[in-house]
Amino acid sequence: MSAAVEGVEVASAPDESLAGILSDEAVAFVAELHRRFEPRRGDLLAARAERDAELRAGGTLAFLDETRDVREDPSWRVPEPPADLRDRRVEITGPTDRKLMINALNSGAKTFMADLEDANTPTWTNVIEGQRNIIDAVERTIAYDSEEDQRHYELEEETATLIVRPRGWHLHDRHVRVDGEPVAAALLDFGLFFFHCAQRL
User: Fold this and answer.
1) By C-alpha distance, which of 142, 140, 161 is closest to 100?
2) Residue 3: pLDDT over 70
3) Is this model's pTM higher than 0.70 or not?
4) Any bridge partners for residue 138, and if so which?
């Protein structure tokens, strides 16, 4: 474990080529997310457990009374989604494995959701390599040479729109601890993706 950022312990990158994913700046950003949002995340998970208990005891689902004005106001609208997310008739989902990401992005689907939760075994290597593969996909430099079939894989001119799904709110990642607490896996996944890709996108 490294502790270059005050109050943060983070496991070393799985190999030296991945060290940039866990730069001091990236780790500090994740730590800031944890410090800002962990109390609220804890409150929401506690409220979720309470609501679950109510439903199991016979409660029913209903909208909140305090949102009635919004629901009944015919002029209330959300903004239009970005153009590349308006057509999601064909969406493919899969892990952040390098070869699979290239094939998914080249598949002809409208969108590809790089799934860091259900489609990914969350080993430290998979988590960090997945982030590198996402960065390379965003930069359009992702490539793979297969020894199995002697093929070279790279992105075609037209690809699916990339969507990234972090792990769930209820999960922790034991590889990063902020002020003695394990960081929420969702904040780690989102934080690393946002830190490395927001400006690139």
Assistant:
1) 142
2) no
3) yes
4) none
